[in-house]
Amino acid sequence: MMGMLAGFGMKVLFWAGGLLLLGLAIFVHEFGHFLAARWLGFKVEVFSLGFGPAIWKRKVNGIEYKVCWIPFGGYVAVPQLDPSGMERLQGETDAPKEALPDMPPWKRIIVSVAGPLGNVVLAVVLAHVIFWMPGAPSTVVLDTRVGHVRESSEAWAAGLRDDDRILSVNGTRIDNWMGLGMENALAGTSGTVTLQVEREGGAIELEMPLQKDEVHGFYEMKGVFPKMPSPVVAKVTEGFPAEQAGVRAGDVLRTVDGQIIWSWEFFVMVVMKKGEEPLKLGVTRDGEDIVFEMTPQLDKTLDRVLVGIAPVASLISSGTMFSSPWEQIKGDALMVERILRGLLKPKTEGERTAVAKNIGGPFMILDVLQTAVQSGAVVALGFLRMICVNLAILNLLPIPVLDGGHIMFALYEVVTRRKPHPRVVAALVNAFAILLIGLMLFLVGRDITRKVDAVKLQRNAEKQMMQQMEKRE
């Protein structure tokens, strides 16, 4: 019972950490608008994190600061930029507003750009923090070399092997594992992709079958894993089997029971399968290969077996796979560009449908964030960086209600030397606001359904594993 309570408490902390990181991305965006508006002499009425009824609010020097119940967004109410937008959406019907001086288009453009710029600044800071974090490799980039292919998988049957390097998917060149996953997911409902693969200095083509993810609906190559740097031991827990056997911090993990350790996740999986049975762990220390024997120990609090070692933090993950700060930002931006291109100008039949099915909503973003927090600081900061780049680019799209819409109206005034008709602006803003709110509600509903399905699948998998273990006993 205590173990279950401890597990629940940790889960709450991870969710709180994810919510805090999401709030930070929203805060810097709105703070950018706020600073620019104040600097250029705009009247600011409200600075809000979140939407809906306020949890907390306070008025200081004529500006109402508040935190609202729905955490997936925020806004700064600037009447000279958006005369009625957010107040109307929030259902606020105060007394008629005071007459305010008109602001020139260039000032409105600066205020509109300042929000996305705030996200870019935070993303750059995060990229540098990740780059300089202790223990994070600064020269390793996760390319498309295959680390392991399960022999029972369809990919193995199609001819893919360990140490192959995938060069392109359906003719589109790819340079990293995220690009590979993206192209597979966007392959539509074709069920197969053509891979160009480099093997022993030559290039071959493989017709690769894809499998549909049962929860999210996207297509992927199952049973195929990237080639990862060998895990390095960062910490050995006192009193646990690894410490008693003689493992030290700095040891490089090579084999477990004779199997090559091609990722930390693979090592954990083998340990979990072994249970409380002896295993042999091969490491490299100062150029010497050493084999230790140990028996995993059951941790009753976590309800799982452990050997008592933790890996060095690594940049190798879906959100932090690039070495230099510039490559991190570039990778995030190209991912957004590829999704938008698949949605607006699909390359193959079914690509637009695949994008629509794979898009996640606020709840999924928060769920992934809490998982990233659980995975460690490097992964969490990498995913936050990716969110910031996404927010910056998407908010600059020329859609009324978004920052790009305000820029579009200001540029119209610059070109035509007259303001767009207020009724036209109001109609466009209200129409797109309704569409965005409807889309948000739809995505939240789909996120929750996916999460419920994922939990069911996980429980079924755990049940099957327990049944298999009971049969072995």
Short structural summary:
The chain is of the alpha+beta class.
Layout of SSEs?
Layout: H1 2-39, E1 46-60, E2 63-77, H2 85-90, H3 105-132, E3 146-149, H4 154-158, E4 165-169, E5 172-173, H5 177-185, E6 192-199, E7 202-209, E8 211-212, E9 219-220, E10 224-226, E11 233-236, H6 241-245, E12 252-256, E13 259-260, H7 264-274, E14 279-285, E15 288-294, E16 297-299, E17 304-306, E18 309-311, H8 325-344, H9 351-358, H10 362-375, H11 377-395, H12 403-416, H13 422-472
Antiparallel strand pairs: 1-2, 3-10, 4-5, 4-6, 6-7, 8-9, 11-18, 12-13, 12-14, 14-15, 16-17
Structure commentary:
A four-stranded antiparallel β-sheet has the order 5-4-6-7. Strands 13-12-14-15 form a four-stranded antiparallel β-sheet. Strands 1-2 form a two-stranded antiparallel ribbon. A hairpin with a 4-residue loop joins strand 16 and strand 17. It starts with a helix and ends with a helix. Helix 1 runs antiparallel to helix 3, helix 8 crosses helix 11 and helix 10 packs antiparallel against helix 11. The chain is globular, with a radius of gyration of 26 Å. The chain is an alpha+beta fold and 473 residues long. The protein is 48% helix and 21% strand.
